[in-house]
Amino acid sequence: MAVYLSNEMLCHIFSYLEDDTASLTAAALTSRQWFDCGIQSLWKEENGNRLVRIDPSRRDLYGRCIRKLQLDGYLCQGGDSKTRAQASARFRALDAKLSERGRLNAQWVTFLNDYNWSSLREISFSKVYVDQALLEHLGNTCRGLRSLRLFHAINFQPADFLRLLEQLPSLTAIHFCEGTRNLITSEVFAYLANRRIIQVLTMKEPLQRAIMENEAATSKSFQDLRSANLNLVIGSMDRFVTVMPGITSLSLELWWTDTKMFKTLSRLERLQTLSITIAYKLEMPPEHILPICNIKSLKKLCVQGKSENLRAFKFRDSDFDSLVSQLNDLEELSFLVACDMSFASLKSLSRHCRFLRHLRLLPSNWDFDALFSNASEEPLFPHLESVNTVPEWNTMPFVDDVSRSIIAREKAMLFRFHMPNLNTMTATVHGEFEKEVLEIWTELKRNAVNP
Known about the structure:
Elements: H1 7-15, H2 21-28, H3 32-42, H4 50-53, H5 56-65, E1 68-72, H6 81-90, H7 96-100, H8 106-112, E2 122-126, H9 132-141, E3 147-151, H10 158-166, E4 173-176, H11 186-195, E5 200-203, H12 207-212, H13 216-219, E6 227-232, H14 237-243, E7 249-254, H15 259-265, E8 273-278, H16 286-289, E9 300-305, H17 317-324, E10 332-336, H18 343-352, E11 358-361, H19 368-373, E12 386-387, H20 401-418, E13 424-425, H21 432-447
Parallel strand pairs: 1-2, 2-3, 3-4, 4-5, 5-6, 6-7, 7-8, 8-9, 9-10, 10-11, 11-12, 12-13
Helix pairs in contact: 1-3, 2-3, 9-10, 17-18, 20-21
InterPro entries: F-box-like_dom_sf (IPR036047), F-box_dom (IPR001810), LRR_dom_sf (IPR032675)
Domain F-box: 7-44
Organism: Penicilliopsis zonata CBS 506.65
């Protein structure tokens, strides 16, 4: 009989092996799941040096099994004075304070060249020193690498980066994070645009400013780009739409907004997933965002404000109706901003978005109770599979527990009727009555009882 253990449990077991590297190695080689946890344990901060103590005859086997590798300087903050001295002596170009803090363990970098990374699919560099020998080794052995994430790559230079890219024919995703602006040159940008295989690109400001100021952006186009994560603080939407016309997934963090910006965005005819996060202290009139209703291909829409900015919208029922009126293929909606809307907005949603499968709302905005009371005899959300909120029903004076139970059951059965395919309901329960409704709904769903 097969026994399944969670990754957390397996890692806990590995922690008891302590410094017994032989046992750790043997266990990790037993199966795929054990191996993943073994690697996780070997690379933990307090166990960072274990990987370099593995017998050389085993290193090649380990390297060929690893799929995802994260080189994070923060994970090796430990280390004795001797290790830090070795790091300082080996990498004199490093800032002295960085070495003194022990953020870099020289042995990690030294011994990485002893492993065969032929099965590696994802790699992340974060605050680590990468020398030329390691770059060449990765380029020679990581031919199947698909995702590359750079975060404060200390000594990366554009020429080194280009050489590495040329050796990675399977690369489809690049994430430029903070500390890598020096890599965004005309040559690098032109190379990425010409390559025509990059499908995922993440750029954070100020990287975007460097890219948008680059002349290559006007003459080259990421025709095959499918996903991007952008932090817009400058008027660059026109340039992005021109450079990335085939994009299907877009995540925006907005620090400014106007009507023209979303009208430009609506030119992305293939866009299927759009996530909009409204930054602090930014108010967005409804008319700014309404043009996205013209993106007929949209299937997933997320609109949210940061924790201190949930009231970024002044939405009314009529505004919401205009927003969803043409989004007939919408399958997932997350509308996590406070608005002045009634059950009429839910009714608009059920009328226009008949294929909606997932719904996330703020509890204070939506009144399912009133909606169901004014509903027709047909289910309002026939395809809905998950919803993250229930109405905050007002407590009422119940005559007795029997009457209370009957009313709660009636409300739960309304959910079952209007959302027949609902599998998951989560809610913040504010009272015993709401809790009872939720429990009865769960029971009805479990027993497949139709009203």
